[in-house]
Amino acid sequence: MKTKMVASASLILTLFAAPALADVHHFVALRYQRNVDASVKAEIAERFKALKNISTRNGKPYIISITGGDSISKEGFDQGFEQGFLVIFANREDRDYFVGKPYSEVMDPSHQAVAQFAEPHFEHDANGKLTGIFVYDYIPDGEAASK
């Protein structure tokens, strides 16, 4: 009986703690200006993926994983986005630090350096507004995300 109660208590704790422990998935898609050379696109992809190994928060690595690559879809729904990346963080605080504004006043300096290098190569509209990047954050399995 005692074992059953401990198992039930453990399950309840796991269910209620899961949203707080849920990984945050940060998806990024990139659309380049027409004149950007393939070697520049490849360098941007490598610099972005390298953030997994060089980014630190409070002196420790904090990015769980970064995967990504060039679009290979032939469905016709890519809207011109050529590369996509999935960055996984343990929690919102780590994502907030990585992104900076609007979540945090401080942005990961390694990420900021990659963004400053890459941004001029992305598509912009006639008014200069950046249109060549799409970002979508989610917590897997439909767990509620507070805003």
Automatic annotation (TrEMBL):
Domain Stress-response A/B barrel stretches: 24-138
Protein name (record): Dabb family protein
SUPFAM superfamilies named among the record's database cross-references: Dimeric alpha+beta barrel
Origin organism lineage: Bacteria, Pseudomonadati, Pseudomonadota, Alphaproteobacteria, Hyphomicrobiales
The keyword Secreted is assigned to this record: no
Keywords: Signal
InterPro entries named in the record: Dabb, Dimeric_a/b-barrel
Source domain of life: Bacteria
Signal sequence region: 1-22
